Amino acid sequence: MNEMSAIEKTVLNDYKYGFVTNIEADEAPKGLTEDIVRFISSKKNEPEWMLEWRLKAYRHWLKMEEPKWANIKYPPINYQDIIYYSAPKQKIKPKSLDEIDPELRRTFEKLGISLDEQKRLTGVAVDAVIDSVSIGTTFKEQLAELGIIFCSMSEAIQEHPELIKKFLGTVVPITDNYFSALNAAVFSDGSFCYIPKGVRCPMELSTYFRINAENTGQFERTLIVAEEGSYVSYLEGCTAPMRDKNQLHAAVVELIAAENAEIKYSTVQNWYPGDKDGKGGIYNFVTKRGICQGNNSKISWTQVETGSAVTWKYPSVILKGDNSTGEFYSIAVTNHHQQADTGTKMMHIGKNTKSRIVSKGISAGVSNNSYRGLVHVNKKAENARNFSQCDSLLLGDKCGAHTFPYIEVKNNSAIVEHEATTSKIGEDQIFYCNQRGIDTETAVALIINGFAREVMNQLPMEFAVEAQKLLAVSLEGSVG
Amino acid sequence: MLSIQNLHAGIEEKKILKGINLEIKAGEVHAIMGPNGSGKSTLASVLAGRKEYEVLEGSVTLDGKNLLELSPEERAGEGLFLAFQYPIEIPGLTTTNFIKTAVNEVRKYRGEEPLDAVAFLKMMKEKMALMEIDQRLLSRSLNEGFSGGEKKRNEIFQMAMLQPKLAILDETDSGLDIDAIRIVANGVNKLRNKDNAVLVVTHYQRLLDYIVPDFVHVLYNGRIVKSGPKELALELEERGYDFIKNELKEAV
Ligand SMILES: Nc1ncnc2c1ncn2[C@@H]1O[C@H](COP(=O)(O)OP(=O)(O)O)[C@@H](O)[C@H]1O
Ligand SMILES: [Mg+2]
User: Fold this and answer.
1) How far apart are CA B80 and CA B73, in angstroms?
2) Are A351 and A379 in contact (CB under 8 A)?
3) How far apart are CA A190 and CA A478, in angstroms?
């Protein structure tokens, strides 16, 4: 009868990206062994040092255990039941964007991503990755004129080995954690981006990840290096077909900002979340970390997380340079049976370092949404400042919101502030909107977008609109 | 325009309205007065379609349309507006964005094209001048941190933007000082015309000095026990609600 019981009513929402593309794939046999690691490396024609790096990671991974501390539950993953390499079979290796298989091209068109440079009016350069392989990067030449390198990781290993050797694994070492070690052993592609000294990247750089093949894990690796005084804004998007079996995604992203450099990294994560009964969906175990290496540098993470069955993700910043700034803006939405344990780590090492955390969790259905954040201030980090704001919004009363803020302060001059709120969408808010002619579905979208506004404002304009729609779609049917 | 017949309504087993009869014609202003707890807000909520309240008996029509079978948003589309006694806050949602959505949703209901940004802005400017409302207020989160007076003015501003057939003002004067009451009443008066009607719900007479009613009804214990011209409000003010209660006792 009353509004709250209506809020509990959940129906299956449409995941409009759930189609499968029929393309032949070149796959490794199931399972993970040293031979598979060698197979991947040789498929990619990698130099010996790269293979050694992978093998070292693999051997280390064998000795590790899957972490269990996050507030998420999922059945044990059988790592021998996963295919670690799957590449869309292209008749010829495309030398230019024109040579890309039309079927692949159509896949990306369906996702609203055009690989034709002329068609992209927004001025966004895109690297498109399907299953494990980058199939094309737009606007390469224009960027190259400025000395910017934006290409797939495989290409970077071939063309810029000195940069890869210098930076890969320096922020997230292969031994860092279970999933990052796994990624280092088997990663098959991802994006590499290098902004030389003093260059302001004139367009958004973007990578679009798509899982297509069945039973396949996707392990991409992204590395962004911003040299002294440079600036780059980078966006990552992702989708997957609807499958009733879970698929594993374990990416690693490393960011390096030199003196006076700034990196803005935005993610709109929309992996398939599973159906309303919790069947299928992506397990998203991601390690993202940036280092403010130089003085006055800045790294800002913005994420809109609406997809995945299970999310385990803590984009972090190591504030090494004096006066450096780290930011984390997050919206995490969970509906139906989704589970998210996400947050950030801010490691204050340099003097006068600042960090800001704004986390907005929205839970509906029987989902569980946890914020987990660590603010660490080193002994020598004079005058460190942190402000954290963690807000949770509940739709219905079968879902959960949890906040785990950890604070470790080893220097007395630090000022660390933490604020947290939990609220529900009130029936009076809905009625107020209804009375003005606004139906319940639209009212909920307005209330949610209001709740998330501070984070939405951080997104590049073109994506903010997209992200707002995504929020509404993920919660469709969870109210009313 | 509005016709209420033998309306009974309650909440969770509790009967609150016990047979309301009321006719309001276009161009009229009616006032409903009554002591606290007599059912004034309940009547306003039932008319607006709040789901918690259950209609047990009776009928309500607006220009011949059966209101009781419409959802709250459809009633708004039909031209019913309620200025809330306690306006609701929605953090992060700008007042402008809220009003724009409301205006366009109501237009959609009526089969009209949505207003584009330019047309909407023009209308906002016009009504802002009419209602003497500060632009800064409209760019803030809806009702968040607004003073009591600002909230009530915002309600009347929304009324100006939505141009309802029937506006119900629930204790729009409560918590306001005399200057604020004058501003709000002024706004309402500017919006009056021969095609719309206003139902003023109030505990005190003072608002009626500024919004002069054609009829005054006294609501007591869920029933309209007395109706009369505007002088009835003054009489109530002078003699208090007790005189009504006494009259009722004598009648029994
Ligand atoms: N949501 C509710 N739940 C229970 N009782 C209510 C509710 N709303 C109103 N009432 C009761 O109904 C009666 C009338 O209330 P109300 O309509 O608010 O009166 P008024 O606006 O005239 O002061 C009061 O006794 C009040 O306690
Ligand atoms: Mg009342």
Assistant:
1) 9
2) no
3) 35
Q: Quote the pTM value.
A: 0.82
Of B209, B215, B222, B212, the C-alpha closest to B192 is B212
- The C-alpha of A442 sits at a distance from chain B's nearest C-alpha, in angstroms, of 9
Full residue range of the structural domain in which residue B44 is found: 2-251
CA distance A380 to A382: 6
Domain count, chain B: 1
The per-residue pLDDT of chain A, averaged, comes to 84
Report the DSSP pairing between strands B197-202 and B166-170: parallel
The ligand minimizing its distance to the Cα of B34 is 1
Please tell me if the CB atom of residue B37 comes closer than 6 angstroms to any atom of ligand 1: yes
DSSP code for B204? S
Chain A CB contacts of B93 below 8 Å:
446-447, 449-450, 453
User: pLDDT tens digit string along A127-140?
Assistant: 776 665 666 667 77
CA A122/CA B191 separation, integer angstroms: 45
CATH number of domain containing B74 = 3.40.50.300
What size, in residues, is chain A?
Answer: 480
Report which DSSP code applies to A180: H
ipTM above 0.90, yes or no: yes
Amino acid present at B7: L
What is the number of H-type helices and E-type strands within chain A? 11, 23
How many distinct helices (H) and strands (E) make up chain B?
A: 9, 12
